[in-house]
Design goal:
Elements: H1 7-10, E1 27-28, H2 40-49, H3 63-73, E2 80-83, H4 86-97, E3 104-107, H5 113-121, E4 125-128, E5 148-151, H6 163-172, E6 178-181, E7 202-207, E8 220-224, H7 226-236, H8 246-257, H9 259-282, E9 286-287, E10 294-298, H10 304-313, E11 316-317, E12 331-334, H11 338-355
Parallel strand pairs: 1-11, 3-4, 5-6, 6-7
Antiparallel strand pairs: 2-8, 7-8, 9-10, 10-12
Helix pairs in contact: 2-8, 3-8, 4-5, 4-7, 9-11
Bound molecules: pyridoxal-5'-phosphate (PLP).
Length: 356
């Protein structure tokens, strides 16, 4: 606390990101990064920008990057907004589109940045409980609201909502923004981008952090009607004209263009996930059905916090959430390479044998 802080700062509860350990030699499965290096075309594009023209400001509109994103999704450039990571895109969406009279709705178990943005922008919210099987039930969102947001697949459960259900929600909810956060969609869920032409209230966000191995570059984007995108641009241009530097714009553009790398990498992670799920089930774990690059798991006899600590002693880092209490028995495990997954299974086998 400081007397120099603006009053709003006293009331903030900031987001706490997963740990980025400074030690090497860890099996790092705690923040849903991609275990594979980015496309070589991305690295070449970034190197080509690391030259004397860095003295100049970057393109404030990131037009080439927006065009590459538009081409990938088959939409117009006017349907694309880009930001410094999708977290920044989400922040602008909360500020630009969610501050109305009624509370916005999001699941009680979801990405914990949503309530943080509500605190920052003074947006009222109501948490909608997930069903008993941890699924999002769209009927629960069909009530008066100032906006709706959830990830699809949801985080940290990994569970996906079918596209038909999202469309049913859009039909029932024409008058407030529905934001679908597709940070993990490339690992097995159906994208709602195809619906933006028909539903002007739909905004879909994506990130290059997970499926394109670029968490360190900070590139995210939103796709939606030109009307929603213009609202976001107005907020962005009132905040920071240059959120994406030259390296991020060049690398992001190359990443969107390299479909061969992208398809092959997503396929590898999905195959590793399927193998890991059967091994975990064989060890007695309950595994929530995942369409993401992580799984939420619990063992009937062991506490999530205890197992997380024991894995850490073996240099394997996974994520445990103390809150909400319904997910406290679980651990969230990022899908690594097959070698990393095998290390995890080996360590868990060892831990479970020692504690019986
Ligand atoms: C990782 C993640 C993001 C943010 O990604 P950026 O790295 O900021 O692009 C957004 N939403 C969810 C649900 C995520 O898990």
């Amino acid at each position: 606390m400081s007397r120099f802080w603006s009053p709003v700062v006293h009331g903030l509860t900031p987001y706490v990101p997963g740990e980025q350990p400074k030690l090497g030699n860890l099996v790092k499965l705690n923040t849903n990064e991609n275990p594979y290096p980015p496309s070589l075309r991305v690295l070449e594009a970034i190197r080509a920008e690391a030259v004397d023209t860095l003295r100049l400001y970057p393109d404030p509109n990131s037009d080439r990057l927006k065009q590459a994103i538009a081409d990938y999704h088959g939409v117009e450039r006017a349907n694309v907004f880009v930001g410094n990571g999708s977290d920044e895109v989400l922040a602008h969406a909360f500020g630009a589109l969610f501050k109305h009279d009624l509370p916005i709705l999001f699941p009680d178990i979801t990405y914990s940045f949503y309530p943080v943005y509500c605190g920052l922008y003074d947006v009222a919210y109501t948490e909608v409980p997930l069903a008993a099987d941890f699924q999002i039930c769209v009927d629960d969102y069909m009530r008066p609201n100032g906006g709706i947001v959830f990830p699809n697949p949801n985080a940290p459960t990994g569970c996906a909502v079918a596209l038909g259900e999202i469309e049913r929600l859009l039909v029932a909810n024409p008058d407030s923004v529905v934001l679908i956060d597709e940070a993990y969609v490339d690992f097995g869920a159906e994208s709602a981008v195809a619906l933006i032409q028909r539903y002007p209230q739909l905004l879909v966000t994506h990130t290059l952090s997970k499926s394109r191995s670029l968490a360190g570059l900070r590139v995210g984007y939103a796709i939606g009607s030109a009307e929603l995108i213009e609202g976001l641009e107005r907020v962005k241009d009132s905040f920071n004209s240059y959120p994406l530097d030259k390296l991020a714009q060049a690398g992001g553009t190359a990443a969107m263009q390299d479909r061969t790398w992208f398809d092959a990498t997503c396929r590898k992670i999905i195959a590793s996930r399927d193998k890991l799920v059967s091994k975990l089930q064989a060890l007695g774990f309950e595994v929530l059905p995942s369409a993401a690059n992580f799984v939420l798991i619990r063992h009937p006899q062991y506490d999530g916090a205890e197992l997380t600590a024991k894995l850490r002693e073996r240099s394997i880092i996974v994520r445990h959430f103390r809150k909400p209490v319904r997910i406290a028995p679980f651990m969230r495990v990022t899908i690594g390479t097959d070698v990393q997954c095998a290390a995890l299974v080996g360590a868990l086998t060892d831990i479970l044998q020692q504690t019986v």
